[in-house]
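Morning. Coffee machine broken again, so started the prediction first thing and wrote up yesterday's gels while waiting. Chain of 126 residues, entered below exactly as on the submission form.
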Amino acid sequence: MADLFSITAPLLIRYPDDTRHVMVHCFTHPDGLVYFRTFWDRLPDSEGICLVRGELRGAGPWKAGNAVITVLGCHGTHPEQAAEYADWKFHLEQQGAGYPSRAELENMAREFIPSPSVQSSRRERE
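Came back before lunch.
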């Protein structure tokens, strides 16, 4: 498969506790990778933008820290997450030109520093 950061299809990250998030954007970070969840722009920063610490491994599926990243399946494979992604796409259509550019999102990811008060929250996963 392709490099994780060149994939244009939606991605799904699954943690060891079976928590799953749809990844609508992901970028490299000095400590691992940073991803933006669906509706990140409506969620508190501590939930909408997440850091996964650890080395990125694989060529699809990928592993980052203890999490596994795959391409989001269809409604038959990941029905809840596929519906969430469809809702996200509709949300984006409503945003129009007000949504940040890829460069702006990349800058946000590069400068992302998790708050020490949420070390073990959804924001930062090891």
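Residues 116-126 have pLDDT under 50 and may be disordered. Going to sketch it on the whiteboard this afternoon.
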